[in-house]
Design a protein that fits this description.
By secondary structure, this protein is of the alpha+beta class. The chain is about 30% helix and about 25% strand. The site of flavin-adenine dinucleotide has 35 residues, from helix 1, strand 3, strand 9, strand 12 and helix 8.
């Protein structure tokens, strides 16, 4: 056994790194065991909701987020014919106390990684260390680890928090009978292309239907010399899932001919989708998968957080946001119950049920469900949306989704900080 530390964290993604920073804030030693040998800024754009931005600001990242993120001020659903179904303000423009940001996922991860090194020290994260399982000991928990030099080793701690994502080894041990990730036939192709600002230049736009759609939002500010912005985009098609899902990572590069023909005539006076796709230097494929909810995240002193606990379809821009919130809620439970199984139980008690419901809600298209209603009623082509769907119906749908995902404006603005400034776990 090479090391004993209070909180062991499996995985240095957004959940694991936020967890380490939260432990540091509340005075609890933590060690991150990350399987990749070198941290690299993988992925393309993600949106972070105000509930997550609030937590990152409490961790001292307000200025950094302003530097790496683009404040999203508008969110729009657009029908297949190119006309607005719904447009609403987002972030501070909508009245939240915190912004919504579009960021490059890899840049966010590297920001958190460097902060862990700065604040906890370079030994607080061991890359090239894959957690393969765990066992509960008399007064703690032991993580089984394949180390960088190819040896099997053990690390002990008071708790093990599994932030090891979709393919979590810890979850696989906790739930040995769980099925493979669930795939409903949706495939995403993702890229980023320099292009002219679209709409307000700060808008998240979703065009199409639940079965064929195009998501777009900027992830850089407008270059003063060229007038262009880096435009993050996702094209999505639903295919017959009976062949089964083959892979799911952030970095399978593919050719645009695999999907562009389906979007060939998606050209509107405000957005030329085929040109945007053709201009991307690289395109990545990602089958949209989740996992069936489970009835427990806790086994003694081991607890799942982030995607390991509740990976969900990315239809509501809230998986990473929730991963951040998870880490903060766990920190609050440590403050309340001490670092041990009671905190893990309290975390599960608060979040398992609502998150399991959200996983299933996202499987049913989340907020994009409105485009399905429009498709059913008029095939996606209309002159006046009020003839197709009343505004009240959309408003109710949207507020219900925000409440379920934890970012209803009034509730979030009124809620006290998850972790009060200066709070420390009693020694
Ligand atoms: C296409 C797409 C678009 C998305 N868009 C958004 C969005 O707009 N907004 C949003 O909030 N969310 C979005 N998400 C979801 C978001 O990316 C995830 O919810 C988030 O990355 C989860 O973070 P995590 O740290 O829990 O897991 P991960 O990011 O998967 O990190 C897990 C980490 O653990 C490491 N690891 C894996 N196995 C082991 C092991 N056995 N031992 C040690 N380390 C291990 C991995 O290398 C990785 O570093 C999107 C997801 C996808 C797929």
């Amino acid at each position: 056994m090479v090391c004993t530390v209070t909180v062991l964290i499996a995985g240095g993604g957004i959940a694991g790194l936020t967890m380490a920073l939260t432990c540091h804030q509340i005075g609890v030693p933590a060690l991150v065991l990350e399987s990749v040998r070198t941290m690299a800024p993988l992925g393309v754009g993600i949106n972070l909701q105000p509930n997550a931005i609030r937590e990152l600001c409490d961790l001292g990242f307000a200025d950094d987020l302003d530097r790496i993120g683009i404040e999203a001020t508008e969110w729009a659903l657009v029908g297949r014919g190119g006309n607005d179904v719904w447009a609403e303000e987002r972030g501070r423009s909508a009245g939240y106390r915190w912004p919504q940001y579009s960021v490059h996922r890899g840049e966010l991860q590297m920001l958190l990684y460097r902060a862990v090194i700065d604040r906890l020290g370079p030994d607080a994260i061991l890359t090239g260390h894959r957690v393969t399982g765990y066992h509960t000991a008399v007064d703690g928990v032991v993580a089984h680890v394949d180390t960088r030099d190819g040896k099997a080793d053990e690390f002990s701690g008071s708790v093990l928090l599994a932030a090891d994502g979709l393919h979590s080894a810890v979850r696989a041990q906790m739930h040995p009978d769980q099925p493979e990730p669930h795939w409903g036939g949706q495939i995403l192709w993702r890229g980023a292309t320099p292009g002219p600002p679209v709409r307000s230049g700060a808008c998240f736009t979703l065009v199409g239907t639940p079965d064929q759609r195009f998501v777009h939002y900027p992830i850089s500010s407008i270059d003063p010399d060229t007038g262009l912005q880096l435009q993050n985009w996702i094209a999505e098609l639903t295919v017959d899932p009976s062949g089964g899902v083959v892979q799911s990572s952030w970095n399978k590069e593919v050719d645009i001919d695999e999907f562009l023909p389906a979007f060939a005539d998606w050209t509107f006076d405000w957005l030329d989708i085929p040109s945007l796709v053709r201009g991307a230097p690289a395109v990545w494929e990602f089958p949209m998968v989740d996992r069936n909810p489970v009835d427990r995240w806790v086994d003694g002193r081991t607890c799942l957080i982030g995607d390991a606990a509740h990976v969900m379809y990315p239809v509501g821009s809230n998986g990473a946001s929730q991963a951040i919130v998870d880490a903060r809620v766990m920190g609050a439970k440590f403050l309340e119950h001490g670092v041990g199984p009671d905190a893990a139980e309290a975390f599960e008690e608060q979040l398992l049920e609502p998150m399991s419901k959200l996983v299933l809600r996202n499987r049913g298209h989340g907020p994009i469900g409105i485009l399905g209603v429009v498709e059913e009623r008029c095939g996606g082509y209309f002159d006046d949306i009020d003839d197709v769907i009343p505004r009240d119906e959309i408003e109710v749908f949207m507020s219900n989704y925000k409440a379920a995902a934890g970012f209803a404006i009034d509730a979030l603005n009124a809620a006290p900080s998850t972790i009060q400034s200066g709070a420390r776990v009693a020694p």
